[in-house]
Known about the structure:
Layout: H1 3-7, E1 9-10, E2 29-30, E3 38-43, H2 45-48, E4 50-51, E5 57-58, E6 69-76, E7 88-91, E8 97-101, E9 104-110, E10 114-117
Amino acid sequence: MTAEQLAVATVPQAGAAGGRAAPKLPEGPLPVRLLADRLLVLLDAESAERRSAGGILIPATAAVGKRLAWAHVVAAGDSVRQVALGERVLFDPEDRAEVEIGGQTYLLLRERNVHGVAEAPGGADSTGQYL
C-alpha cells in the first residue's frame, strides 16, 4: 500500500457482502488510520433488536446466553490478513470498544476476536443456508 492509501481508510459501498442489506455506511474516506490487526466495524441493525418466532420484539439489552453479533467492516489495519473491507463478520460483543466518528458509532475489534466471515450467497460452495 502507498502512504496515501494508508493515510485514510476508505469505506466500501453499502450492500457489498453477505447477501444482507448493509447498514447505511458513510460515503467517502474516514479520518482514521487503523494500526496493526484492528478492524473498525459498523454493527448490523438486526444485531441491535430481534424478534422471536412468535413475533415478540427482543431488545439488544435483554439478557441471553453468550450471543454473537454481526457487523460490516469499514476499515482495517495493515496487519489484517483474513478480513477485507465490506465483509460481514461475526464477533463477540463483549470483545469490543466503541468509538464515535462524524456522529456515527463504530466498534473497534482485533482481527483475532472475529469468529467468522459471512460468504456471499450463491458462491461455488454455497449450501443454501443463511448465516
